[in-house]
Amino acid sequence: MRNMVNVVSYADGVYARVDEELEVHDLAVVGEIPAALDGMFVQNSPNPYFPPKGAYHWFDGDGMVHAFAIRDGRVHVRNAFVRTAEYEEEEAAGRVLWRNTFGTQPVGGWRSNLGNVMQKNVANTNIIFFGGKLLCLWEAAQPYRLEPATLRTLGLETIDGTLQPGMPFTTGVPALDKAAAGVVGDPLTAHPKVDRGREGEEGGDRLVAYGYRAKASAAALAAGRGAFDSELMLYEFDEAWRVVARRPIELEGFAFVHDFVVTEHYVLWFQNPCDFDPTLYVLGEKNPAQLITYDATRPTLVHVVPRDAASGRAQRTVEIPACFVFHHARGFERGGAEGGAERGGAEGGAPSCEVAPGEERLVVDSVVLEAFPAFDTLTRPPDDADRAALKALDFGAVPINRLTRFEIDLRCKVSRKSKQRTPTRPHSTTYRQLNNLLATT
Predict the structure, then answer these.
(1) Closest by alpha carbon to 170, among 188, 189, 184, 187?
(2) Other C-beta atoms within 10 Å of 236: how many?
(3) Second label for 267, Cα 20 to 30 Å away, from 87, 104, 345, 394?
(4) Measured between alpha carbons, how far is 17 from 49 in angstroms, rounded to an integer?
(5) What is the DSSP code (8-state) at residue 380?
(6) Residue 360 contacts by C-beta under 8 Å, 6 or more apart in sequence?
(7) Helix, strand, coil tally for the chain in percent (to 5)
(8) Secondary structure (DSSP) of 69-101
């Protein structure tokens, strides 16, 4: 039995559009706020500036940030749109001008969108505070920076020129990529990880991140793996936003990777068995996520990459049974440093093997879907003026997420799925915390 959230449509309930930007001070408090609770909670989520009139998926909404500030037992709240360059263009024009990833397009069908491959940076997926910067993230482009106390948009954040503005594509030739700035760019994941400084080590906290880019590849076509290979640019930044590490990871085939795992010595990406044919996107008929296909006959590939290229640890790829992973809950290393025996291998048991120092066993808790979510079936059709088709979408067809533990033994080069758990509450809301960044009241 599916354990689904009771949602009517992308137009109602928790998905309903918010059209006001508010600033409210001294909210009524029931009870008493603990004196030690001092700071600000912020959340970023999709919220369309214009009421949807054509094809629409809620992931395409403009970024809107909500902030709850608490100090001295008082609570203040404000919300604001992330005013990206594309948002301001559409606000001035009074209509949707930009295409997006999951279904949103300017009205007019293919005649309006033929050959237009540029997408709107919605800056709507996540928000982080690191190194004194409050950043709104969307994985297909560069972050937008906000002023923490007021939520005023400060502009596109390139991290001192590290990230070139543009879309998540590469020609494979750095000089050509630079010449095509504005079209070809350096995106940043919406799910970076903060590696907290360890006692006795210099450098403090680090932000570990990556950028995914698709690369058109004749070799991929010839090998029958689609039109694209992939590049993952791995970054590590210190608290002053200096680039501590930056190097490309080349993968064969199209890699739909939305999240990743960071451990003490490794980063891991799960490459879902997906393909992408951009033909109908270029022709203006559909958007990218509607054109991703899933092949359950192929394995999911787990790419295990050492964070330090000079550490002597090898990059490896481990196969697991086909599944689709959007997000990971956590990852850590077990064993290896002390040596000794650890178990590995496929489910059902396998002989134990000796784990030498540096040959770690990795444990990853991932949110696994039993099937690929077909975005094309969950997108509002064009010309749905009365929202009837939007409300008639079959939300019960959305596959449930299950928290699953994978254990990857690097010495034995095997993996096993050890636990699977269906959550009792598949929908939840999380907040990111900022301390001592309150507006003057």
Answers:
(1) 184
(2) 22
(3) 345
(4) 8
(5) B
(6) 263, 265, 266, 333, 334, 335, 336, 337, 410
(7) 10, 35, 55
(8) EEETTEEEEEEEE---HHHHHHHHHTS---B-S
Half-sphere exposure of 304 (CA within 13 A, CB side): 27
Q: What is the pLDDT of residue 110?
A: 84
Q: Per-residue pLDDT for 6 more than 90? A: no
Question: Positive or negative, the Cα torsion across 183, 145, 192, 425?
Answer: negative
The answer to whether residues 281 and 376 touch, using CB atoms and an 8 Å cutoff, is no
Q: How far is CA 55 from CA 169, 248, 287, 379, 396, in A?
A: 25, 36, 10, 7, 20
What is the pLDDT, as a whole number, of residue 373?
75
- The domains of the chain are located at 13-434
pLDDT above 70: percentage of residues in the chain: 77
Task: Read off the DSSP letter of residue 140.
Answer: T
Distance from the first to the final alpha carbon of the chain: 50
Q: Which one has a higher pLDDT value, 336 or 140?
A: 140
Q: Are 311 and 263 a contacting pair, CB within 8 Å?
A: no
What one-letter code names the amino acid at 118?
M
- Residue indicated by tokens 């698709």: 214
Residue 349 Ramachandran class (φ > 0 left, ψ -120 to 50 alpha, else beta): left
* Separation of alpha carbons 155 and 145, rounded Å: 6
pLDDT digit string, tens, across residues 348-406: 333 344 444 457 889 999 999 877 777 666 666 555 556 666 666 666 666 678 899 99
Measured between alpha carbons, how far is residue 311 from residues 340, 362, 420 in Å? 22, 17, 33
Q: Compute the average pLDDT of residues 121-131.
A: 97
Distance CA 259, CA 147 (A): 26
Q: Residue type for 364, please? A: V
C-alpha angle with apex 298: 297 to 304, nearest 5 degrees?
A: 155
What single-letter DSSP state applies at residue 229? E
Q: What is the pLDDT of residues 52-63, one digit of tens each?
A: 776 677 889 999
- As beta bridge partners, residue 77 has 24, 68
Q: What is the pLDDT of residue 107?
A: 81
Distance CA 391, CA 410 (A): 48
pLDDT tens digits for range 15-36: 788 989 999 999 999 999 988 8
Distance CA 196, CA 60 (A): 32
Each residue's pLDDT tens digit, 280-300: 999 998 889 889 999 999 999
